[in-house]
Amino acid sequence: MSDQRRLVPRTDQLLADPRLRSAADRLGADLVKAVVRSTQERCRSGEVQPDQVAEVALAMLPRSASSLQPVINATGVIVHTNLGRAPLSAAAVEAIVMAAGATDVELNLVTGRRDRRGRSAMAALAKAVPDAEDVHVVNNGAAALALAACALAADPKDTGRNVVVIARGELVEIGDGFRIPELLESVGAVLREVGTTNRVRLADYADAIDEQTAFILKVHPSNFVMSGFTSAVSVTDLAGLGAPVVCDIGSGLLTPHPRLPDEPSASASLRSGATLVTASGDKLLGGPQCGLLLGRAAWVQRLRRHPLARALRVDKLTLAALEATLTGPDTPVAEALIGNPADLMARAVAIQAGLAHVIAVEVVSSTAAVGGGGAPGIELPSAAIALDPGLAAPLRTCHTPVVGHVVGGRLLLDLIAVPPESDVVLAEAIQRVVGQGTGDKQCT
Ligand SMILES: *Cc1c(COP(=O)(O)O)cnc(C)c1O
Fold it and tell me: Minimal CA–CA distance to 254: which of 271, 238, 240?
């Protein structure tokens, strides 16, 4: 055995180090032991000095027991699906922590009896959309639509109605290969497509409706724009046909937003006569992943009592975050949406000045997007730091990863979706990767 091998500190010795012991309390003994073992291995091979094993093992430990990492979203896309969609407000994060232990989610502490699950989150949602007679929440937007189709259109024995009438231009693929028409068919609904890709008229719907029609579905084309020779039918006109109208508005905007004139809202859809509205909680609403169902009391109750509802039930953390999102201060998404380009530019200039002694970065005005299935085609004026595209990979592998986007041969770090308090971390990350050059080295 070589000297080096004999000098490798023993596992029990290392695990007795108070710093590694406290890490084991926080992260789990198995995880810490695995990191210690791999560091001993590196010591055996001469890569780590024997007296450095504990330090190196400590540095190798993950920040938390989950390997999900916090990321700075400098993509210029406010609701980025690959980055977990809406970042939660501080109020929502606090609510999640409070609800994490035992909590009164289904218990009335005054009477000591079982109570309606998530009643306060439901009350907050109902209060935010007074046009809804009743509300329900499931796991995501797709689940909301699946539950609606399953409860209202999947069982012809029950109602004799299992046909969903939908315009061909609204047969939407949401993303990652998932398609709304296939989702509806997967729970047993039968689709009756009307119109053409670009145009549909009221008469097309009127001709398609018969005694088998469960509902008309109006899907918001939330991730693409059709322009040119197009026509669609308004919710008001559809509601006039007599069949129930379900609106999948997607984005979760509860009331109209001045900056997003073409984005449908739950209130406006219900006021126009929609029987039921479905939407996501983690897009423009800025809350946790969930699916909102809002509308006529009798319909919402049928959904809530359907057996599938139990399989789509949201957990206490979601309920806590949703309520805090609805009742708390403006969400990060709401703040980004009203972001003032001059303020963003001033932040970019401050970052530039702070880096002047290390690297000359360029500040540019940029165009940001809402993203995540909301307000397609809307361009939001923003500001960005422009860097060498070779820095994209090192920045993504930083201690706090920074994700930008490469456009026109430059890496743009757009500030619209970066919380102002993260500017310092972003500047530090740039400083660190510049210090290392633009190779494929990792930034640690
Ligand atoms: C995003 C979206 C969905 C899917 O919602 P998830 O919350 O992602 O399940 C469905 N329909 C429309 C119109 C959407 O924009």
Answer: 271
> Is residue 15 classed as helix, strand or coil in its secondary structure?
helix
- The yes-or-no verdict on residue 155 having pLDDT over 80 is no
3-state secondary structure (DSSP) of residue 252 = coil
Enter the DSSP assignment of 168. G
**Residue whose token pair is 């959904």:** 303
Task: Please name the residue that has the structure tokens 């390997």.
Answer: 67
d(Cα 128, Cα 126) in Å, to the nearest integer?
Answer: 5
- Is the whole-model pTM more than 0.70? yes
State the alpha helices, DSSP H only, in 118-263: 119-128, 141-153, 156-159, 180-186, 202-208, 235-239
**How buried is 85 (Cβ within 10 angstroms: 0-12 exposed, 13-18 middle, 19+ buried)?**
buried
Secondary structure of 379-421 in HEC code, one letter for each residue = CEEEEEEEECHHHHHHHHCCCCCEECEEECCEEEEECCCCCHH
Asked if residue 137 lies in contact with residue 315, where contact means CB atoms within 8 angstroms, the answer is no
pLDDT tens for each residue of 60-108: 998 898 889 999 999 999 999 999 999 999 999 999 999 999 999 999 9
Which stretch of DSSP H or E encloses residue 5?
Answer: helix 3-7
CB-neighbour burial class of residue 187 (10 A; exposed 0-12, middle 13-18, buried 19+)? middle
- Which residues pair with residue 174 across a beta bridge? none
Q: Would you say the C-alpha torsion 344, 350, 354, 355 has a positive or negative sign?
A: positive
H-state helical runs in 275-422: 297-305, 307-311, 316-327, 332-337, 341-355, 392-396
Residues with CB under 6 A from ligand 1: 140-142, 174, 219-220, 222, 248, 250, 280, 291, 373
What is the best residue among 173, 218, 219, 280 to mutate for testing ligand 1's pocket, by most ligand atoms within 8 Å of CB? 280
Q: Where are the beta strands (DSSP E) in 153-236?
A: 163-167, 173-175, 178-179, 190-194, 213-219
CB 414 within 8 A of CB 83: no
Sign of the alpha-carbon dihedral angle for 296, 301, 302, 308: positive
Q: Tell me how far the alpha carbon of residue 181 lies from the centroid of ligand 1, in angstroms.
A: 12
User: Tell me: the pLDDT tens digits for 390-440?
Assistant: 999 999 998 899 999 999 999 999 999 999 999 999 999 999 998 865 444
In this structure, the residue with its CA closest to atom 12 of ligand 1 is 250
Separation of 425 CA from ligand 1 center, angstroms? 32
Q: Whole-angstrom Cα distance, residue 193 to residue 43?
A: 66
- Partners of 194 in beta bridges: 167
